[in-house]
Amino acid sequence: MKFEDLFLEIGGFGRFQILVLFILCLPRINLPMHFLLHNFLAATPSHHCAIPPQEAFENLTTEEVLLISIPRDPDGTFRSCEMFSQPQFQLLLNSSLQPENSSILQHCQHGWVYDHSQFTSTIATQWDLVCEQRGLNQATATFFFIGVTMGAVIFGYLSDRFGRKAMLQLSLVCSVMFGMLSAASVSYSMLAITRTLTGVALSGVSLIVLPLGMEWVDIQHRTLSGILTSIFWSIGNMMLAMVAYLVREWHWLLVAVTGPCLLSIVCLWWVPESARWLIANGQVKQAHRNLLRCARMNGRKDFTVSPEVRNWRPRHIKMATDKKPGGSYSYISLFRTPVLRKISLCSGAVWFGVAFSYYGMSMNLTGFGLNMYLSQFVFGAIEIPAKMIMYVLVNRIGRRQSQAWSLILTGLCIGANIIIPKSFTSLRSVVATMGKGFSESAFTTVFLYTSELYPTILRQNGMGYTSFMARLGGALAPLMFLLDEVWRSLPEVIYCGIAVCCGSVAFLLPETLNMCLPEGIEDIE
């Protein structure tokens, strides 16, 4: 008897599953608020070198002081990182004659003056993370994703070893603690450390929510549950735009996006542990109690645990009774057998490409001609119809084709914006929005697809490994923006190339449409 057969008796998608999915969707709203927070937390407003007061400036206006103290670019804007070593008073007579002698230029000596019309404060204005320190500003996103990468490995193993629910609760509690510590940071070093630890904690939420929800639904509603859970990410994406618009001070912005985790902690107490995981780890009695609870809530009050179910254990436990349940498998098991090895290598590459291109687009809000708050909201809103379309496509043409083409089209949209001139603002915005939709489609599919590729005994290890690859891509994505000093379009070329190549790798993965979730490694092989 397969576990899927039990859903015929207890109800595969009733009130119980709907409530479980709704509660699990609450922490999903929080995830993009932290994962994409860098756009607002580390925003760099327009700035110029601070100019010390001099007697010669007493009769000059502020604009005239800037004119003789700071060089201008060909487009007429004042440079952000350079100033004249001596005031150039001749520019008062003819400001168009900019000095060509670079020896009279120097780096800012007295700090910077920032435009506070859009942001009260960001970490860039707090610790002057501009010009030579610009790399540290981008690195805050990398530190966060390094934490998420480490968390994927840690929580992937722990949730297979100690259960989905316990590790999800732990990750939420740690997310609140480290999120609040980040808001209270008094130095850049403290912020970097606490954001890294926040990433570790939130990785558990990202990793566990979807598999825990999917393990409680039947085959027919597995895709629907994955899409529904994913839609709440998009809702969080749009909410981030609104929260950031209302809260312009970075300390309070961190508090605002961390606080909702408390609601998730309270609600999660109701959600039961995955019956699949309990049975796979030999905790059959607790699994029976959870199944009875599910059946009663779904109106199947005549359901009883039959002797066949009481004595039922998956084949992988029957074949390994001499091994301690839950302690026999690790990340190495993902590469021991031929088919599983191929799945792991290819899915790892796909996850890297999905995350690398997704965060490359999501962290370039000012590159498409729209207001950054509007860009954030539009990028979040376009994800919802993209998910709806993917719900149809993954059930019609399959997971593999949907995964491959959504990622390839993401890369092509990024590549198209390299060619389209900057003056075509509307066209660039449309192409970028389409690319963001394809990118989110790829992300939605890869979560669902990967959950179906790995067997129950290794599902969280598999999700942990692939999430590690994704977070590696997420950690590298913001650093690519630093390459614009080499060639302005180089970051986009890299995003485009990686997306197309990794999308092509998805064609090597097996199709899982309408297949039972595998329980043991032998089901894969």
What does this structure look like?
The protein is an all-alpha fold and 525 residues long. The protein has 3 domains: 1-29 and 135-321, Growth Hormone, Chain: A; 47-114, no CATH class; 332-524, MFS general substrate transporter like domains (Growth Hormone, Chain: A), CATH 1.20.1250.20. It is 62% helix and 2% strand. It contains 23 helices and 4 strands. A two-stranded antiparallel sheet has the order 1-4. It has a two-stranded antiparallel sheet with strand order 2-3. It is elongated. The relative contact order is 0.14. The model is unreliable at 315-327 (pLDDT under 50). Keywords: Cell membrane, Ion transport, Membrane, Transmembrane, Transmembrane helix, Transport. Pfam families: Sugar_tr.
The figure for the number of domains is 3
Please count the helical segments: 23
Q: Quickly give the structural class.
A: mainly alpha
Distance between the termini: 20 Å
As a percent range, the share of strand residues is under 5%
The helix/strand order is HHHEHEEEHHHHHHHHHHHHHHHHHHH
Catalogue the unreliable spans: 315-327
CATH-assigned fold name of the largest domain: Growth Hormone, Chain: A
CATH class of the largest domain: Mainly Alpha
User: What can be said about the biggest beta sheet?
Assistant: 2 strands, antiparallel
Average per-residue pLDDT, rounded, comes to 86
- The CATH architecture of the largest domain is Up-down Bundle
Q: How much helical structure, as a percent, in the residues? A: 55-70%
Beta strands, count: 4
Broad shape: elongated
Side by side, the strands of the main sheet go: 1-4
The CATH homologous superfamily of the largest domain is termed MFS general substrate transporter like domains
> Rg from C-alpha positions?
26 Å
